[in-house]
Amino acid sequence: MAIAKQYLKTKPICKVTFTVPAEDAKKVAVVGDFNNWNPKGSTLKKLKNGTFKGTFDLPKENAYEFKYLVDGNYVNETEADRFQWNDFAGSENPVLEV
């Protein structure tokens, strides 16, 4: 898994690209604070090599808890900026800082 950040000079946003290798998965989405944990509109596109990929514009100077939703199962990003305990989930969530 990987996260790439591209900061724009002309706008207060960061283009964040999420890449998830999941050859056997049918559907992968990114859910988190930035989309109210709703997978609608945050589905990643499956590439020919079996990797799922998607880019989202997120406001800069924020931190977002998030997870991947792979065929209905929550998966943590191993390369997150940091991890934070979430009482509601009862687990640690990866955190993205932009």
UniProtKB/TrEMBL annotation:
InterPro entries: AMPK1_CBM, CBM20, Ig-like_fold, Ig_E-set. Keywords: Hydrolase. Residues 8-98 form the CBM20 domain. CDD domains: E_set_Isoamylase_like_N. The keyword Hydrolase applies. It comes from the Bacteria. GO terms for molecular function: hydrolase activity; starch binding. This is Glycoside hydrolase.
